[in-house]
């Protein structure tokens, strides 16, 4: 009897140690420095280019997370999960961005401080041309500077463990950073992000959080109940 109790206690201790290790790995991964050779994005005030950038902002799905006015918003929440995309107007997170910073954040998934983004699908934008990036960034830069949201990436415990164990990865880990930008208009930038089942974005685009693709009906159930579902995509973003 005593040996059984001892064995159980031993297993419990081992499990706790494993959990602590995975969480510590997750922190290390989030804090890691991702070295990319970034290219400078050209700024323009040309009206036609800016209009192209506005279309890209909508079609590439930036709007679903960063909001119609670019001021940032909470775009997913539930059961320990909270994701807020930051303010992209000139008064926001990008106020001090240099021309290279735009490229590394959007195409490489790396913030100016060298840390990986966690909940933004930069791998979808990695194949863009520098012209497309220039149009998009020029559009963002001419938005009226306005107060907005700061980024929040809060993952449930199970997600942090999965990330720590390397079962899920961030965009910077999924990108081949040596691949050059497209030379001309890229298919990924032209394609609307609407999935065949009519969703604005697959759930997996909220980061490696829930790497499953839900049907439209499942999304609706999640939205209707809000409870008992791992994640709720806010109705306004769909
Ligand atoms: C699925 C939601 C989502 C989509 C789609 C998305 N973003 Fe983001 N974005 C985020 C989140 C969340 C952050 C905060 C950083 C992180 O993920 O850890 C962020 C951060 C950023 C940053 C700032 C990085 C920093 O802290 O310096 C920029 C710039 C940005 N996004 C631009 C864009 C643009 C442009 C697009 C479209 C091409 C886009 N995002 C699409 C969610 C998204």
TrEMBL record:
Protein name: Cytochrome c domain-containing protein
Region forming the signal peptide: 1-22
Pfam family, one: Cytochrom_C
Keywords from the UniProt entry: Heme, Iron, Metal-binding, Signal
Organism per entry: Acidovorax lacteus
Keyword Transport: no
Domain Cytochrome c stretches: 48-144
InterPro entries hit by this protein: Cyt_c-like_dom, Cyt_c-like_dom_sf
């Amino acid at each position: 009897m005593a040996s059984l109790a001892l064995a159980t206690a031993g297993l419990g201790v081992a499990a706790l140690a494993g959990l602590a290790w995975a969480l510590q790995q997750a922190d290390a991964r989030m804090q890691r420095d991702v070295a990319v050779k970034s290219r400078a994005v050209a700024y323009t005030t040309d009206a036609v280019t800016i209009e192209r950038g506005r279309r890209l902002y909508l079609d590439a799905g930036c709007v679903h997370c960063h909001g119609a006015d670019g001021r940032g918003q909470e775009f997913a929440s539930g059961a320990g999960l909270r994701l807020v995309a930051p303010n992209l107007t000139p008064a926001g997170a990008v106020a001090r961005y240099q021309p290279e910073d735009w490229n590394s954040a959007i195409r490489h998934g790396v913030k100016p401080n060298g840390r990986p983004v966690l909940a933004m699908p930069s791998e979808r934008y990695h194949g863009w041309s520098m012209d497309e990036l220039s149009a998009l960034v020029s559009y963002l830069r001419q938005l009226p500077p306005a107060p907005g949201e700061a980024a929040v990436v809060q993952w449930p415990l199970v997600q942090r463990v999965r990330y720590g164990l390397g079962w899920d990865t961030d965009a910077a880990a999924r990108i081949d950073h040596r691949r050059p930008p497209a030379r001309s208009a890229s298919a990924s930038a032209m394609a609307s992000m609407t999935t065949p089942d009519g969703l604005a974005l697959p759930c997996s685009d909220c980061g490696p959080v829930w790497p499953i693709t839900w049907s439209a009906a499942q999304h609706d159930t999640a939205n209707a109940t809000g409870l008992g579902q791992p994640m709720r995509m806010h109705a306004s973003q769909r």
